[in-house]
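Subject: sequence -> structure tokens, single chain

Hey, anyone have a minute? Need the predicted structure for the following. Not urgent.
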Amino acid sequence: MAGEMTLRVITPEAIVLDVRTTSVRLPGVDGSIGILPHHAPMVAAIDTGLLRYRQGTSEGVLFVSNGFAQVRGDLVRVVCEAGEKPEEIDEQRAKESERRARERLASRGKVAAGDPVDILRAEMALRRALMRQQVLGYGSRVRGVR
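Reply:
Had a minute. Here:
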């Protein structure tokens, strides 16, 4: 169809998503990126966050983490470290990851000249945990998309 494009999300483990869609919103490194059919060719860096897509009147959401997106013709290809549908996310595990990351960040003041690498890793872990929980919340409101 003229008003659709293929969205393909690829991780090192699998093709997570391969659907026809009418629009895509990606978490770009420099901000949110919206893509509609007939978009100009492009390559963009993807940050950790929510990838949203529409199929007609239905919406879908996916957690994605660090990678890139390529738009070429009627194909939007997203290659990323992680891609998870709401039903694949373990809520308890995400909450436990958040708790551990917050503990590491809270204890950084107790360590003289804390290791900047550990602080950065804890901040990134916290962000991933919060984004996964956001996908769970968003996914429970979204209906009709496989």
